Amino acid sequence: MEITSSHRRLLKLFQYAIGVGALLWLVANAEWGRVAGVVDGIHYGVVALILAASVAETLCRFSMWHVLLNGIGATRFSTAVRTTLITNFVNQLFPSRLSGRSVAPVVLRHYTRYDWSEVVTIAGVHTALYAVCNGVVALIGLVLFLPAFSPGLLVVLAGSVALYLLVGVGSLVAGWRFDSVGRIAHNARGRAERLPIVSRGIGAVLDRLPSFSDGVAGVFGALLADYRVIGLYAGGWIASRMVFPGLRVWLLLYALNVEFSPLLLPVVLVTAYSVTLLPVTPGGIGVAEASATLVFGALGVAEPIIAPVILVDRFLGVYLPSLAGWYPVTRIDLTAIAAGEQ
Description:
Helix content: over 70%
Order of helices and strands: HHHHHHHHHHHHHHHH
Low-confidence stretches: 180-186, 197-212
């Protein structure tokens, strides 16, 4: 059955509806009166720490792109800032985090002098390392909290973790053996030429892959062989995905007189938010909040209490920084760049 543009629009509307419905469910079930009373009494110093943790988290996200770019050549930090903001903004428009990752090479090409093989590889390494880090930590969380999760929640989280590991490991294998990928693509092109009607289109697409093989394999190997690059990237990931979000949520829970282990909290957050990779709603909107609420509920935190905490955490850590990406997006024409320079 052919998928028409109207079908795609209906699917996107359905996905947005799921996200909005999940958010409304959270808002309706949260104890906003109690939360407002407690928040009103939070010391200014605690508020400052929450905001500082959010700023530090965002800066560490910038550093993850910057360290990979510097692994190829000296690059301005502002390039990493723009790339992060734009990819995060795009992630909120389309389902799955991979949407923003697919735009990253075009953005990097616009802001740097690197050729296509280099920017494609940098974006690929970023995707691979991010997915592996997220998948490994979420898997640890899944094992640690396995007895507490319901069968339905366990299936969703396990599927998300498996997808992260599949994307991460698959990207690493493809990068290390890109020469083999090129040969496979060349053979596939030969077979595709025998197919009627679609042979020209398939052949044109597959024919692009081998031309990147030498450049991609070289850059990929250089980045992954540099332990300083890998170490700094992993440090940025840990800080931006675990340390500072964990500190922010712990401060919010502390203000609400809810006890939760600050050592386990970062692992819980990574596990709870792992559903964002599933192409259910744009950017995981609504679904991520609902998943995190259910995870914390299974671990003993009342859902009406944790729901507003999760909403505040997502607003400060995801939606506000993503909204900041609107401005750099309006300054460039991604479609024209991709069409004019490839």
